[in-house]
Amino acid sequence: GIGLVEALPIIGVAVGFLLLNS
To answer: Could you name the domain of life of the organism this protein comes from (predicted)?
Structure first.
């Protein structure tokens, strides 16, 4: 699909993962 559309959920999971590890 579109890069941004597919990247948004990936970014969300990555940010959430980093926040949980902080």
So the answer is: Bacteria
Q: Mind listing the pLDDT tens digit for each residue in 7-16?
A: 999 999 999 9
Hunting for tokens 């590890």 — which residue is that?
21
Phi-psi region of 2 (alpha: psi -120 to 50; beta: other; left: phi over 0): beta
What is the spatial distance between Cα 2 and Cα 15, in angstroms, rounded to a whole number?
A: 20
What is the residue-wise DSSP string for 1-22?
A: --HHHHHHHHHHHHHHHHHHH-
CA separation for the pair 18, 21 (Å, rounded): 5
